[in-house]
Amino acid sequence: MSQLTTYSTNTTSVPVSDKRCENKTDGYYCNRKMFIDEHGQPFCWYCKEISVQDQQLANETKFNHKKKQIQSLYESFSENSLINEKLKKATFTNYLPPNQELKAAKDRYIDFVREYDADNPISLLVIGNYGTGKSHLAVAATKEFMKMGKTALFIQVNKLFTKIKSTWHKNSDLTEGKLMDIISSVDLLVIDDFGAEFTEKDKSEVTWKVTKMNEIIDSRAGRATIFTTNFTIGELSSMYGERDFSRMVQDAEFVEMYGANYRLRNFSKGKGEQDV
Ligand SMILES: Nc1ncnc2c1ncn2[C@@H]1O[C@H](COP(=O)(O)OP(=O)(O)O)[C@@H](O)[C@H]1O
Ligand SMILES: [Mg+2]
Ligand SMILES: [Zn+2]
User: How many Å apart are CA 180 and CA 160, to the nearest integer?
Assistant: First the structure.
C-alpha cells in the first residue's frame, strides 16, 4: 500500500470527537480517534484517506484498462496493414521532406501535436498524391500523442471496415459498440485513406460504409481527427455529397502534400540503386 499523505492531526481547526472509528478491515477495528467535520459529523482521517486512495486506484485501473484496450486495437490494426512494416518505423525525425511544401506539411503535423489542446482540439485534412508521406507523418503523430500519455489510433479505412465486420461474428470478443466507443473517444484518431470506401465495387457495401463513416465522424465532434486522402477536395465533395462532406470536415484545416512518390524515388536514379 502506498504512503498516506499527511493529514494534519494537530491543527486546532479540526475538532476531535470522543468517538473512535469502528471500521473493520481484515478482522481488526480501526479504533482511531475520530475528528469532527464542518457539518458536525465524526470522521476518521485514516479511513477517509484510504478510501480516497482506493478510488484513485480504481480510476487508474480503469484508465489503464482502457489504454490497454486501445493499445491492443492499435496493434491489431497495424498487424494487418499492407504497407505497415515500413510505416511502423515512421517518426518525425526519419521523414526527410524533399520539397518546401512537404517541409511545411511536416512542420504543420509537428505543431499539431505540440499545440494540442484537449479543450480546443483541431483536425487536419491532409490531401495529396500517393507516396508523399501523409500516412508516415500521421503515424508519427499518433506515436507522439501516446508519448504524451494521450490515446491515439491510426486506422486505414478498409481495415476499419474489416474490423467492424469482424465484430459481427458470434464469438468476437469485441462488440461493434465497444469498438465504436473506443474510436469515438480516443484523443487522436487518424482516418487513413479517407474516401477509400468509395472504391468498393459492391454498391450496397458502399452505402453502409459511408453511413458508418458519417457516424464515426459525428461521434468525434470536439475531438482531434487527422484525415489523410489521395482524393481531391472536389472528388471527396462529390463522393460524399457536398452537404455531408462539408459537415464532416467543418473543423478541419487543409494541408497539402504534393510531390514525387517516395516509393519510386530510386527508380528515377536508374538501376542498381533500387532498394524499395
Ligand atoms: N520524405 C520522406 N522521408 C522518409 N520516408 C518517406 C518520405 N515520404 C514517404 N516516405 C516513406 O515512403 C512510404 C510511403 O509513404 P506514405 O506515408 O505511405 O505515403 P502516402 O500516405 O502519402 O501515400 C512509407 O514507407 C514512408 O515511410
Ligand atoms: Mg497513405
Ligand atoms: Zn478508521
Answer: 10
CA distance 226 to 242: 20
Q: What is the CATH number of domain 80-263?
A: 3.40.50.300
Atom 16 in ligand 1: which residue has the minimum CA distance?
A: 133
**What stretch of H or E contains 105?**
helix 100-114
Query: For the chain, which residues make up each domain, given as ranges?
Result: 16-54, 80-263
* The length of the chain, given as a count of residues: 276
- Cβ(263) – ligand 1 distance below 6 Å: yes
The pTM (predicted TM-score) of the whole model is 0.76
Strands, E assignment, the chain: 16-20, 24-25, 28-29, 33-36, 42-43, 123-127, 152-156, 188-192, 224-229, 252-256
Q: How far apart are CA 214 and CA 197, in angstroms?
A: 12
Q: Chunk the chain into consecutive blocks of 10 residues (it has 276) and report each block's average pLDDT, rounded to whole numbers.
A: 45 78 87 91 90 84 80 68 70 96 98 96 96 96 91 90 90 87 92 92 88 95 96 94 93 94 76 45
* 194 pocket-lining for ligand 1 (C-beta < 6 Å): no
Pocket residue to mutate for ligand 1, from 101, 126, 143, 262, most atoms within 8 A of Cβ: 262
Burial of 266 (0-12, 13-18, 19+ CB in 10 A): middle
pLDDT at position 13: 64
Handedness of CA 163, 244, 226, 179 (dihedral sign): negative
pLDDT at 84: 67
